[in-house]
Amino acid sequence: MGAGLAGWAAVEALRALDRDLPITLVTACSGDRYHKPELSVALSRGQSADDLVRESGSEAARRLGVQLLPRTFVTGLSPQSRRLRTTRGTLSYTGLVLAMGARPALPEALPEAHCWRVNDLAGWSGLQRALADGPARVAVVGGGMVGCELAEDLARAGHRVSLLDRHAYPLAGLLPEAAGRRLLAAQRALGIAVHPNVAVAGVERNAAGERVVQLADGERLVVDQVVAATGLATEPRLARQAGLDFAGGICVDGRTLATSVPGIFALGDCIAIEGQPCRFIEPLARQAEALAHALLERDHPGYRHAAPVVRLKTRQLPITLSGRPDPDADWVTVSDDAERLEMEQRQGERVLATLSVGAGRRAA
């Protein structure tokens, strides 16, 4: 269930183990294959939706010998009888893989009717069409990774960008202040109007068709488009209806990716491992390989979760974070000059995390 990067990774891994296994892929979209991280850098490159598609869903299905059910929605799941109910009928399964991703977590102040969500190709295509007539005023709400990448991409594409964030500097939940301040300065140098320490109280559309962003402090910002980049959340409805353990995501075994219900596995943005959501692209191939072996009862050492390397796709100021930062541990500056900032966290002799901000080579 699901034909994003995770769903197709699972199909590839299963097919590699068994050439004849009957596989049905159910997806609410077309199933076209594209690399999702490219959505946050595609506008400045002048790319279209067709440019981003690497392989159509129908082509991938033929190549891998898969029955693809596009534009099909799942309406229910009965684990006891191993049946999946969809808008195109009920499917029986031996094993079920949930790769349903996560949806944008929109606060009440950001109504869907007035805000774009760039979480898939369809959402990105809609925003691209809305901006096709030339430079526009765009407000990006949220200073996390996606918000920062989209703000830079929009600015480089010629739009007037306002970045609204609840924190004093972007990526405040991930970066120490020294790094966050550098990123803030780089964004402003690119022409992005950064509004730190602000909360959005609402968004409305005026008679001229503009969006009016109402801030909690009373200020009003008039723009042409609003992009919400306020994080992701796993939809719990199907998991709870099927009796799957759920804690911020579908709970899976950290080695096999099995859920709490026999015969059902999950991977990608929709899962939680040891109570923590796992929303990164890098582990997907390893998750899919371990899951496929477990589902087909083949020997495998299992998936081993590790903090992936985080790379912010901002040309203005590249940022790379490795390791698992401790929010209560201090960051120590290793080197600091106009071109690059290097920092790390240590616990005794053990390095918890390293951070590189800026261009140039990492210090030896």
Number of strands: 26
Which structural category fits the helices and strands?
alpha/beta
Distance between termini? 46 Å
Total count of domains: 3
Strand-residue fraction? 25-35%
Under CATH, the homologous superfamily of the largest domain reads: FAD/NAD(P)-binding domain
What does the overall shape look like?
Answer: globular
Sequence of strands across the biggest β-sheet = 22-23-26-25-24
The percentage helix is 10-25%
Compute the CA-based radius of gyration: 22 Å
Number of helices: 8
What is the level-2 CATH architecture name of the largest domain? 3-Layer(bba) Sandwich
CATH topology of the largest domain: FAD/NAD(P)-binding domain
* Major sheet summary line: 5 strands, antiparallel
Question: What's the average pLDDT?
Answer: 94
Low-confidence spans: pLDDT under 50, at least 5 residues?
none
Classified by CATH, the class of the largest domain is: Alpha Beta
Structural write-up:
The radius of gyration is 22 Å and the shape is globular. The model has no long low-confidence stretch (mean pLDDT 94). It folds into three domains: 5-102 and 234-295, FAD/NAD(P)-binding domain (3-Layer(bba) Sandwich), CATH 3.50.50; 112-228, FAD/NAD(P)-binding domain, CATH 3.50.50.60; 324-358, no CATH class. A hairpin with a 6-residue loop joins strand 22 and strand 23 (319-323). With 364 residues, the chain is an alpha/beta fold. The protein has a five-stranded antiparallel sheet. It contains eight helices and 26 strands.
